[in-house]
Specification:
31% of the residues lie in helices and 22% in strands. The protein has 15 helices and 24 strands. An eleven-stranded mixed beta sheet has the order 9-8-7-10-6-11-12-13-14-15-16, sandwiched between helices. Helix 2 links the parallel strand 3 and strand 4. It is globular, with a radius of gyration of 24 Å.
Length: 483
């Protein structure tokens, strides 16, 4: 494409140079610039792309989009100044890939917990009903049945639009996409044409990034404020912030709930470790996902599918065939009868939900042994809260490392221990090495006991001192529960 075609929808504050030149690619990473590329200078959390404009041009950038021209030593290079280069990048990414979000039904899922499960369930439902569907989630990207790894809950605008274009070219009719608060704040989803938006719940998370909970809520709300009038907005009526998302929202409002009468009403009639019997809008279904939080997720997936135009009976049939999502209440039972559960729960609310579910399905009456840590370089305020919840809901607790990243793991555990009530400390251990912590839990567990390993879920690596090491909670559990 020519530069003038790529930037035609942008708001300019200044423009110089020839806009009729061809562009080979768009990038916002100066290290990836090749001859003929368009470089977009982004003000990031860790670095400012404006400091790398000269390097990008030296590497062959044919043009630059930025917020400030500065004193670049390359006057012959076209320079487009915009008020917000993040918004500009998203607009140009959509144009570069031919506005692919307009060619399929795109549904965004936001909230603190449940995003991955709901997006994945929606992908499974549509695939089972015979449609080709795409998925952009924390765990993976799916194009039909083809799985690809991913590194962010919501990728950057270039990767989003590239992926959506590949989905369209692969004849996908739908795409279900997690929308993180970071993605909204950093304009990664700008210019995407959403057919629906889903709100799961809101509790404390990411306060290392957002200055307070109010800002976190307002960023989530921006997603709904920007939905078009012909889209739907489906929110959780069991969360007090659900109705907040609908304020000033132009999209058609809908509510799902396990507690109150609304558009999509559900209730659990039986709950076991293997799954749950549910009633949805008067019809019964058995699902292979246990727990109230999963019942809420399934109800949401049902509602969104119906709002996309599918017959309720077809959706209910698909619900009964759905499989649990990797690392989300994923279970394993040893030969001696010990149950192990791996879950991604890494917020206070998610931990409470998982532990409540374990207590409800613990019909054998065994002890609950929880292994949990807290991520480094993230919201420190939730660490003692998480530890208190786990200590009060478990018979034995082992505090350990999650992904310590660049923090001292011992200091993280110190902050977690501050939340453990004095009376609960006698059954709380601290073992920094996560593998050793899981092994210890397996050693002390009896035949009826339940081991919960929380925090990392589907992840197959552990980040320590900036280095990624292979690590899989479930594999380590299986190795140590062989007998």
């Amino acid at each position: 494409m020519r530069l003038k075609e790529i930037i035609q929808d942008l708001e300019f504050s200044a423009v110089r140079g020839d806009l009729d030149l061809p562009i080979g690619n768009i990038t916002f990473d100066s290290r990836e610039v090749r001859k003929g590329d368009l470089f977009v200078a982004i003000r990031g959390v860790q670095a400012d792309g404006h400091n790398y404009m000269d390097r990008a041009i030296t590497s062959g950038a044919a043009a630059v989009v930025c917020e400030e021209a500065g004193e670049t030593a390359h006057p012959g290079i076209p320079l487009i100044c915009v008020p917000d280069s993040r918004k500009a990048l998203a607009q140009m990414a959509s144009a570069w890939y031919g506005h692919p979000s307009k060619e399929l039904s795109l549904v965004g899922v936001t909230g603190t917990n449940g995003k991955t499960t709901i997006a994945t369930l929606l992908h499974q439902i549509h695939q089972r009903m015979g449609f080709r569907a795409g998925l952009i989630s924390t765990i993976q990207i799916m194009i039909g049945e083809e799985a690809r790894p991913t590194t962010h809950t919501t990728p950057d605008p270039l990767l989003i639009n590239k992926t959506l274009r590949e989905m369209v070219d692969a004849a996908c009719e739908y795409c279900f996409m997690e929308v993180s608060s970071h993605a909204v704040d950093q304009e990664r989803i700008r210019n995407l044409d959403f057919n629906g938006g889903i709100f799961t719940n809101l509790s404390r998370d990411h306060l290392d990034y957002h200055k307070d909970f109010r800002e976190y809520l307002n960023v989530k709300k921006r997603f709904f404020d920007d939905l078009p009038g012909d889209a739907f907005a489906l929110v959780n009526g069991d969360d007090k912030n659900g109705l907040v998302m609908l304020q000033n929202c132009q999209a058609e409002p809908h509510i799902y709930s396990l507690r109150t009468m609304c558009d999509f009403r559900g209730k659990i009639t039986e709950m076991l470790l293997e799954g749950s019997a549910m009633e949805i809008n008067g019809n019964e279904v058995w699902v292979k996902l246990p727990g109230r939080f999963n019942a809420s997720n399934l109800l949401c997936a049902y509602g969104a599918s119906v709002l996309l135009g599918h017959h309720p009976d077809d959706v209910m049939a698909a619900l009964s065939e759905l499989n649990p999502v990797a690392g989300r209440f994923e279970t394993f039972q040893s030969a001696k009868g010990t149950t192990a559960i791996v879950d991604y729960a890494h917020t206070p609310d998610a931990l409470q939900n998982v532990l409540d579910t374990i207590r409800e399905v613990n019909v054998a009456g065994g002890e609950i042994i929880t292994v949990v840590g807290a991520g480094g370089n993230r919201d420190k305020g939730k660490r003692p809260i998480m530890a208190r919840i786990v200590a009060e809901a478990s018979h034995k607790v082992i505090l350990t490392s999650d992904n310590p990243r660049n923090e001292d793991p011992e200091l993280i555990l110190n902050e977690m221990m501050e939340g453990v009530p004095l009376l609960e400390r006698e059954h709380t251990m601290r073992i920094v090495n996560r593998e050793e912590a899981i092994r210890t839990a397996c050693i002390i567990a009896g035949e009826k006991d339940i081991i919960l390993v929380a925090g990392k879920g589907h992840e197959h690596t552990q980040e320590i001192a900036g280095e990624l090491k292979a690590f899989d909670d479930m594999e380590i559990l299986k190795q140590n529960l062989k007998g």
